[in-house]
Design brief:
The structure is a homodimer of 120-residue chains. The first copy, chain A, is an alpha+beta fold. Chain A has two domains: 1-30, no CATH class; 32-109, Orthogonal Bundle (Arc Repressor Mutant, subunit A), CATH 1.10.10. In chain A, 58% of the residues lie in helices and 12% in strands. The first copy, chain A, is built from seven helices and three strands. Chain A has helices spanning 8-19, 21-29, 34-44, 49-55, 61-73, 95-98, 101-114; strands at 46-48, 77-82, 88-93. In chain A, strands 1-3-2 form a three-stranded antiparallel beta sheet. In chain A, strand 2 (77-82) and strand 3 form a beta hairpin. In chain A, helix 1 crosses helix 2. The longest helix of chain A is centred in the C-terminal third of the chain and has 14 residues, at 101-114. The first copy, chain A, is globular. Chain A starts with 7 loop residues before the first helix and ends in a 6-residue tail after the last helix. Chains A and B meet through helix 1, helix 2, helix 3 and helix 7 of A and helix 1, helix 2, helix 3 and helix 7 of B. The structure holds a DNA duplex (30 and 30 nucleotides).
Chain lengths: 120, 120
DNA sequence: TATGATACTGACAAAAAAGTAAGTATGGAA
DNA sequence: TTCCATACTTACTTTTTTGTCAGTATCATA
């Protein structure tokens, strides 16, 4: 979570995300959980925190919150808070989030088609 | 490099790459360097190890080799060895590698379009 | 006989990402 | 008055990825 601003690692990442659209896109959707979150929101339109968590098999509270927060900060998802107890918070894609649809669909197809060819 | 086969981390990754095309695709092109390597090979057709390295600003020998090896193992690049001294080794995309073109192009466009909207 | 060019290797260290476990706040229902 | 459900927090540990640095092999050429 804490990034060392001038580690070589960080310098390299910044260089590439600033100079390459693909690297930038990857920085936004990369990692273990973000694409799964985006996919579920793409299908289900709007989901409560707890509903999303149920779908994300294996995820921990910490990852849930931290990835949702990153996605929100990046403007890909909206966080809708209902003032009630117990709390109810829903998540949905923003327009920007929706604009990733083509990429996600293509990636899904490619994966489905080639999973069997590549044995990792 | 060494993965603990039954860490939760690894279990989660396996679960998602096996059950989700997108996650699988991400496992193949994710990380700091792979997409850059693929992009350069997509543009330049065929490149020597040293030529590729020059383009990959900031990369170390270790990362070069290890990422090239992974890409080769996954069947995305061909490694062409010329029997001569000093050594000459060229890398090019396979057909499978080329089939990622649409995804990479879309990702590039999306990144270029949205880089300014998202300030990280 | 030493040097140079190229494509690597390997042991180790730092950084980043992911996971664990135990909390907190709220107000209505039992 | 204690308990419950939900959406988080927080401090800490483990795992994974990335980077550093100093090698190695080959043979033609100087």
């Amino acid at each position: 979570m804490e990034r060392k601003a001038n580690s070589t690692n960080s310098i390299n990442e910044v260089y590439w995300t600033e100079n390459c659209g693909i690297a930038f896109t990857l920085s936004v959707i990369g990692g273990r959980w973000k694409i799964s979150i985006l996919s579920f929101l793409l299908n289900d339109k709007k989901l409560r925190y707890s509903e999303l968590k149920k779908r994300l098999v294996g995820i921990s509270e910490r990852m849930m919150i931290s990835k949702l927060k990153e996605l929100e900060l990046d403007g890909l998802v909206n966080r809708i808070v209902h003032q009630q107890v117990p709390p109810k918070v829903e998540y949905e894609l923003t327009e920007l989030g929706h604009s990733l649809k083509d990429i996600l669909v293509l990636m899904d197809k490619w994966g489905e088609n080639n999973m069997m060819k590549i044995e990792e």
